Amino acid sequence: MKYCCNPININYRYQFNADPRLKGLLKICREAADPSMIRFKDRYYIFASMTLGVWVSDDLAVWENHPLPKELPLYDYAPDVRVIGDRVYFCASSRDHKCDRWYTEDILNGPYIKVEGTFPYWDPNLFRDDDGRIYFYWGCSNMTPIFGTELDPVTMNPVGETKELIHGDPYSIGYERIGENNSVLPCSEEELNMKYAGYLKRSGITEDRLPPGVAALLRGMLSNRPYIEGAWMDKKDGVYYLQYAAPGTQYNTYSDGVYKGSSPLGPFVPAENNPYSYKPGGFIPGAGHGSSMEDQDGSWWHASTMRISKNHDFERRVGIWPAGIDQDGEMFCNQRYGDWPMNIEKLRKDPWADPEWMLLSAGRPVRASSETEGHPACCASEENVQTWWQAASDSTDEWLELDLTQVSDVRAVQVNFADDKIDIPCPGQISQGSQPRYIEEAETVTRWKLEGSADGNTWFVIADKSDAETDLTHDLIVCEDGIRVRLLRLSGMKVPYGQKPCISGLRVFGKGCGEKPAVPAFTAVRDNDLDMTVSIEAQQDALGWNILFGSAPDRLYHSYMVFSSDPVRIGALIKGRNYFVRVDAFNENGITEGVCAETGDR
């Protein structure tokens, strides 16, 4: 199959999180994040946090999970994986102990040879330059920068000084501000001192009684400063591209920025196109802490972290998008329709190609056999991964039915299962360390059947996963030749731990037979240095809009998909830069480009 639809269609393992702050309670959710994506011996691999394995693909569309040896630090975050010659080097994050490395010449079969570590670090990234010298980057904090140093290529020990490479600057860089839509400015030093003193007073403790390092940690938590993290280095045509993530994984604006330099340890300056990877809207937002890679044809791809963050801040998924470097040396990533089906082969040739199939299901009527309070059936078609329909029981007799309101040419269906609050004992031993948890090792399954009908009387099977041994909670069913259908019914649902089935999106894509929307009318006003407001005139013939913006009319590299014409505040701007904006309208029949306008400099 040459199609994929974000998030990546793979098994996401359950985490039994035992954060000490939860006082004995467990928070249970699925998670995968912080992907390192590489090409090695003509195959593609993604190593992501908390998966106990590696995802493998021959075509970037279909991925399979394979377990990794248990001696690797699979409970440590942000695994970094790099190809150096005939070897692949692996390491991960720890602030509590020296981080070891492993290398192998066979990812799936090993063996993995250990290289003793010499210092602790978080969010690592290894890079081999063209001359064979090795460099290392790390950092994950709202108080410290991204660091870099050179390593000995044999011992992997630092040689030379450690340099501070990227500092956060949320006063000048809008996309680094925390909060939904980058809505929160960091505290001034005076405000931080007041908040810190107030916290100590309410807690009834004095600073001298705090353990070493806790005072700095507390100040960081109270500062509203962004996390600067997730370094990843690429080099192309003599330019070094140091990517980093901000402002925090739980926000819809989790993104990857990029700095450019002429040497591996800088100095670095912000690229003109920032943020490089940014997806605040659509069904599932977030595009931060990722990695970039050239495929076997020389096309670029970017993988990064997508956000759910309802059952736990770290309830996350992984997405992949076409990317590239333009004629002026600017990295870009196309996330305009970043959670719709993508034709991988088509995007290899043109990373800005429009989707082949349009969204047919948004806002369509949904009914169900039953529902629970706060989780009505309509949630399954409202294009929001943070809301879901929940059945009233775990019986396989429960069903969910979507009405497209007319017989339609359907080409793909994405079935998205969600998790409501799970309250079960932990099935294994909780690990120790900074992130105590147990990752489910058992191979759980998700089962269902999807049927279609043109008239509500005669039904046919679209896909039957009733006997599946897989656990694909964002499953994509492709009907490339098309099927004629109005009603789609999901039934026979069976999910792990005897849960009541939950569906966050029964998403249908295909080709409409009507007219595209009219050219949208809009205004884009620069409110201040970091913010602009885009107001779109309501359209009867539009399902939604894509707000595109960038540094020039032919560099509208950033996008924000919305389904309402309410004014949209975009807080990802950079002080002192001009911006151009275009709003495209879309419906079931296609996309209509708007007219580009300039917001002006502030």
Describe it.
The protein is built from 3 helices and 42 strands. It is mainly beta. The protein has 3 domains: 31-186 and 224-349, Tachylectin-2, Chain A, CATH 2.115.10; 358-511, Sandwich (Jelly Rolls); 522-598, Immunoglobulins (Immunoglobulin-like, Sandwich), CATH 2.60.40.10.
How do the helices and strands line up, and which of them pair or pack?
Blueprint: E1 3-4, E2 14-17, E3 27-30, E4 33-40, E5 43-49, E6 53-57, E7 64-67, E8 80-84, E9 87-91, E10 101-104, E11 113-115, E12 125-128, E13 134-138, E14 140-141, E15 146-151, E16 158-166, H1 189-203, H2 214-222, E17 228-236, E18 239-246, E19 255-261, E20 268-270, E21 288-294, E22 300-307, E23 316-325, E24 331-333, E25 342-343, H3 344-349, E26 358-359, E27 366-368, E28 389-390, E29 399-417, E30 437-439, E31 447-453, E32 459-464, E33 474-494, E34 502-511, E35 522-526, E36 532-536, E37 544-550, E38 558-562, E39 568-570, E40 580-587, E41 590-592, E42 597-598
Antiparallel strand pairs: 1-25, 2-3, 2-30, 4-5, 5-6, 6-7, 8-9, 9-10, 10-11, 12-13, 13-15, 14-17, 15-16, 17-18, 18-19, 19-20, 21-22, 22-23, 23-24, 26-34, 27-29, 28-34, 29-33, 29-34, 31-32, 31-33, 35-36, 36-39, 37-38, 37-40, 40-41, 40-42
